[in-house]
């Protein structure tokens, strides 16, 4: 499916009534994004959970609260970044989005990227990294490794929910947030970046 969406209004209109995959059957509220549509850093998660589906806002549940704390620790403000997901509707029982669901929803993500025009994209977890960074991503091996893709740079890291289960991943996660911040500074200073 090619979505040629050149305005936020057209994108939102299309999303609000989207039935392009089976996930539309279960959703309470579509979860499109949070944060700043002019952000330099964009974070991409997997898909809404229960609380996100109730509130229509990404990363507001337990993983989201931890994410907010760690953003703060890295000196990033949630109001300065843009946050969205691979799929905009909640997968039942929080299962991983199936490949056909992700493929159906990806044109919307591409439109979001085109409209926000971030300089740095951070993939939160394996699912986001799989569709945006590397189909065969091994997150424990490749997290933090910057890759250039067209006009922007992508960094994969852990999903905040993984940190709730494995606290020992937190330092690496914060290191990746700091790396994203530093990368942005270097881009703004037109420094040469190996990626
Ligand atoms: N997990 C995600 O991947 N996205 C959300 O919005 C919430 C939890
Ligand atoms: Fe449409 Fe995406 Fe929701 Fe599927 S997950 S119904 S493609 S908005």
Q: Could you characterize the architecture of this molecule?
A:
The chain is an alpha/beta fold. It has one domain: 3-Layer(aba) Sandwich (Uracil-DNA Glycosylase, subunit E). Helices cover 42% and strands 13% of the residues. It contains eight helices and six strands, in the order αββααβαβααββαα. The protein has a six-stranded mixed sheet, with helices on both faces. A hairpin with a 2-residue loop joins strand 5 (147-149) and strand 6 (152-157). The longest helix has 19 residues, at 170-188. It is globular, with a radius of gyration of 16 Å. Bound molecules: uracil and iron/sulfur cluster (SF4). Iron/sulfur cluster (SF4) is lined by residues 15, 18-21, 23-24, 87-89, 101, 104-105.
Annotation field: number of helices: 8
The total count of strands amounts to: 6
CATH H level: which superfamily? Uracil-DNA glycosylase-like domain
Any idea of the CATH class? Alpha Beta
Estimated radius of gyration? 16 Å
Distance between the termini: 30 Å
Order of helices and strands: HEEHHEHEHHEEHH
Give the total of domains: 1
């Amino acid at each position: 499916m090619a979505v040629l969406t050149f305005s936020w209004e057209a994108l939102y209109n299309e999303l609000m009534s989207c039935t392009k995959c089976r996930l539309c059957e279960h959703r309470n509220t579509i979860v499109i994004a949070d944060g700043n549509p002019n952000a330099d850093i964009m974070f991409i998660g997997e898909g809404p959970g229960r609380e996100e589906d109730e509130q229509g806002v990404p990363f507001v549940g337990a993983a989201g609260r931890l994410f907010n704390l760690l953003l703060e620790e890295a000196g990033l403000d949630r109001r300065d970044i843009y946050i969205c997901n691979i799929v905009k509707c909640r997968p039942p029982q929080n299962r991983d989005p199936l490949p056909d669901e992700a493929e159906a929803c990806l044109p919307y993500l591409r439109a979001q990227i085109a409209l926000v025009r971030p300089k740095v994209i951070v993939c939160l977890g394996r699912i986001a990294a799989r569709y945006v960074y590397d189909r065969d991503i091994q997150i424990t091996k490749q997290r933090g490794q910057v890759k250039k893709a067209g006009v922007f740079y992508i960094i994969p890291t852990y999903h905040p929910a993984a940190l709730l289960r494995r606290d020992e991943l937190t330092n690496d996660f914060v290191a990746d947030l700091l790396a994203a911040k530093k990368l942005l500074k270097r881009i703004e200073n037109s420094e040469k970046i190996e990626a």
